[in-house]
From TrEMBL:
GO CC annotation terms, alphabetical: membrane
Gene3D superfamilies found in the cross-reference section: Metalloproteases ('zincins'), catalytic domain
Alphabetical list of Pfam families matching this protein: Peptidase_M48
Protein's UniProt name: M48 family metalloprotease
The protein's required cofactors: Zn(2+)
Cofactor binding, per record: Binds 1 zinc ion per subunit.
Membrane-crossing residue ranges in chain numbering: none
Record's signal peptide: 1-27
Source domain of life: Bacteria
GO biological process: proteolysis involved in protein catabolic process
Assigned keywords, A-Z: Hydrolase, Metal-binding, Metalloprotease, Protease, Signal, Zinc
């Protein structure tokens, strides 16, 4: 027992030292953060595995044998790849951005782990009208991962020592709690504003209109006004000022485009593929 304690203590010191030294330099976003990119990826992989386990009864996987599910993933991954073509995404090479679909038509939500694992509920997908709006949501979640908002929020919520212990393969009970709470993890106003802004920039490099996130937030507001506040709004407030800021930036960037008919037609196919 004493030897095991000593090993764990030394290992913790080694990891902590590495994290502290890596935090002395700025990351690609120009910010100082204790966690290295490798730590983001390792933590994200563990959290994603735990999230998969939590939602295992509802998770639709890319390896599903059903053709409609495969087609749905092909379409969503196609949207993601278009977004990832933007050179404004700092860690598009390092992070293995991927989307997983959770079959729950009653939940309007999406969230991201560190390192770029993104989860989208079928309820949110079915609420939208076209690919442009979904691209706005995905761009927003990619920004949370790329700007490392999720890592910072987890450190603020649970503390550095807890995240260190998880990276060391310990504290599995806490990992379960993090996986269960990730869908409702709250970000600060600055992080939300930044994610909105980068979503506009990412989509500006695609054929999608880059104010898709604004249209999405308008839909979320309608749900809230109807007395059915979505989970998404508990973590991503969608007030009028925020919608205006997205639209104003898209206008200033001259990247508001007409929604192509194919965007709506293809989207109806996506919804049919996710209707069981």
């Amino acid at each position: 027992m004493k030897r095991l304690f000593s090993f764990n203590f030394i290992a913790s010191l080694c990891v902590a030292s590495a994290l502290l030294f890596s935090g002395c330099a700025k990351d690609k976003n120009g910010e100082r953060i204790i966690f290295s990119i490798e730590d983001d990826i390792a933590l994200g992989n563990q959290v994603a595995a735990q999230t998969d386990s939590i939602y295992q009864d509802k998770l639709l996987l890319p390896t599903d044998s059903r053709q409609n599910v495969k087609d749905a993933y092909a379409q969503i991954n196609g949207i993601v790849q278009k977004i990832l073509s933007s050179d404004k995404i700092s860690y598009r090479q390092e992070f293995n951005y991927n989307v997983k679909i959770i079959k729950d038509d009653n939940t309007l939500n999406a969230f991201a782990t560190p390192g770029g694992h993104i989860y989208v509920f079928t309820g949110l997908i079915k609420k939208l009208d076209n690919e442009d709006q979904l691209a706005g949501v995905l761009g927003h979640e990619i920004a949370h991962a790329d700007r490392r908002h999720t890592s910072k929020a987890l450190e603020r919520e649970y503390g550095l020592s807890v995240l260190l212990s998880i990276l060391l393969g310990e504290n599995q009970n806490q990992l379960v709690q993090i996986g269960a709470g990730l869908a409702t993890l709250k970000f600060g106003r600055d992080a939300e504003t930044e994610a909105d802004s980068y979503s506009v920039e990412y989509l500006g490099d695609t054929h999608y209109t880059c104010d898709g996130a604004a249209e999405f937030f308008k839909k979320m507001q309608q749900e809230e006004q109807a007395g059915k506040p979505p989970v998404f709004l508990s973590t991503h407030p969608g007030d009028e000022q925020r919608i205006k800021a997205i639209t104003d930036k898209a206008t200033a960037d001259n990247c508001i485009k007409p929604v192509a008919p194919a965007s709506e037609t293809n989207y109806q196919t996506l919804i049919r593929n996710l209707t069981f």
